[in-house]
Design a protein that fits this description.
By secondary structure, this protein is mainly alpha-helical. Helices cover 46% and strands 2% of the residues. The protein is built from six helices and two strands. Strands 1-2 form a two-stranded antiparallel sheet. β1 and β2 form a beta hairpin. The radius of gyration is 27 Å and the shape is elongated.
């Protein structure tokens, strides 16, 4: 049966040596076999277990929830439905995260298209665009419904999550602080 040193297990799993020790200490790992000299010796089964932990961690499962899942696994067949519930809850969170990331990716791709087409919009110095801003509308295509679109066919507001940072946000933000609440510029004080 092959065995792996802690360094090899860390390299294989992507976890640091400190994380491996921590996971063992808090019960996420089964007791790791020791050599005669007292050094940890990981097995293929340990590496498979680490791969599961890596998957759960990389997809955002909190350590406390990982501990709950591991406890349920150790409790045996009687906990299958509870384990399923933990994984289904986690799956929903991961799916929501994927959806958000896809929306953000769409926003990024739209911005890349704008730059590639040389259509980057820059507001007058010291003025940021606002939704419905005539300067912003003049630099985009307005549809019959009054919705802002873009010449490349992408809707700048396709994603709700990113609507506050549309593709037409200013590329060059003003360097001066701008007016304070009383309307005075910092340079005038």
């Amino acid at each position: 049966m092959p065995s792996y040193t802690p360094r090899e297990a860390a390299a294989h799993s992507g976890f640091s040596l400190d994380t491996l020790r921590y996971y063992e200490r808090i019960g996420l790992l089964p007791p790791i076999r020791r050599t005669r000299s007292g050094r940890r010796s990981f097995t293929d089964m340990d590496l498979q277990w680490l791969a599961l932990l890596r998957c759960l961690r990389d997809t955002g499962m909190p350590v406390t929830e990982m501990q709950q899942f591991v406890r349920l696994m150790r409790d045996g067949q009687g906990t299958t439905q509870e384990r399923l519930a933990v994984l289904l809850t986690h799956q929903r969170r991961v799916q929501e995260q994927i959806t958000r990331l896809q929306q953000h990716l769409g926003q990024i791709l739209t911005k890349i298209d704008i730059y590639r087409q040389g259509q980057a919009w820059n507001p007058p110095h010291g003025r940021a665009p606002h939704v419905g801003d005539p300067l912003r509308i003049a630099n985009s295509d307005e549809t019959e419904s009054g919705q802002l679109g873009h010449a490349n066919g992408h809707d700048r507001h396709a994603t709700r999550e990113c609507a506050e940072t549309p593709a037409g946000i200013p590329e060059n933000l003003p360097t001066s602080p701008g007016p304070d609440r009383q309307g005075h510029n910092a340079s005038e004080k």
